[in-house]
Amino acid sequence: MTLYAPDGLQMVMMERFEPLTSAVDCNGDDGLMSLKFKSQGAFQRALDTWSFINKAQEKQFLLIANHDGCGPQDERQAYRITQIREDAAKLTTFLTAQKVPWSDIAGTYDLDFGRAIISSKNPQRQGLSDKVTNIGTDITNFLGDTDDFMLNGDADFSKSIKFPVDVGTPGEVHPIVSSTLFSLDCTDCYITGSFRVTGHLSIKDFSLQDFSLSGSPQGLAAKLELATNIRAPYSPTSLNYTRELFSMDVPEAGISVPKIFDLGAWITYEVGVTTTFAGSANMTFGVGAGLPDTAVVTANFRNPSLSSATGFDAGQVDPSFDLQGLSAGVTVAAFSQAKLSFGVDIHKVGRLDIAYALKLPGIEAHLKAAYNQAGLCSTNPGASQTGAKLDADLFVAVDLSLDARLGSSTTPSLAFRLFVSQNFRSPSALPRRLAPTSGP
Hints:
elongated
């Protein structure tokens, strides 16, 4: 993150040199802050860095402190430093310091995030506010790579965002629909892998100038396997149903820069089905799918037309059908959907909400009872004469929704499809005729 200090003031992060100090006093009641250094070399380094401050009356800088006692708990406090006095015998510097409200500093900045990798782990359900990461815990290592104390007018923050999207358990059964005519169970529904997010935010004078958020799957794979049992009249019956199987916060995706910017994320996992059926059927069907790591979905708030989803058509699918019995016909469209939602609160600017919905995977299948006296699927001796004709498509889709509340105005919500592909049709993998594995 890059903050632009007012009047071009230089900004110094206390974290950059705090390892060189043995004691810090930020009480500030007397307008004086003291820093005691561990060695003569560390003390001299500070003097060399700050020597400009006493050379001219108008020279001053901003010190951003995150030390215990320097500000509210777990928050940074900005100080305007106007004079420095040294006590060489005690290796101590005394800074004339005045607290500066963040509202005087945080009105203009650029923020870019999402570079390094955070190790994956299975997420547990918990309150988002309890686990949002304070960016200050990571800044010391990031800033320690440079030898200079001074930031030449800006303060650079860094926070990586890569988080697991492991939802569902392989082989676990979840009832989706249950009635006397139609039952549908998820017998193997889950998503595994992780998601990397990068973003850019630009604020000028507490007004949103630009915001974009991009996400890329990392080793993302999904399985949708459904078992259905139909006992219906021979007149067509229709059903449309969606069920949320899982919902959880994603603490690994949280960023908090107190009094400037907060980002939180959560994930929901749904299974939906639309079907028209007549007669009886007993079958298990589904599809597994994987997305390439090169796939990217981007949301652009200032110019939604620039939002995009690329690389998803390179995904791989593995369909399966197991027919135990069928009379009459069934048309079914089913999907599993992972919805990744991000909420962004910007101090004194407003709130932005972004949601990516990945239909991964989806299947549309039409089955009709069939009979061939010579054998439905083959003419080999003993081949089944009954079964079903199958016409099926496999698909992946990416939807995006945007919502903003900036100041006293509310931007109309937008929802649109960024990508859908029917190119996953695989004649070699999808038989056109199915023989029952057991009698109806």
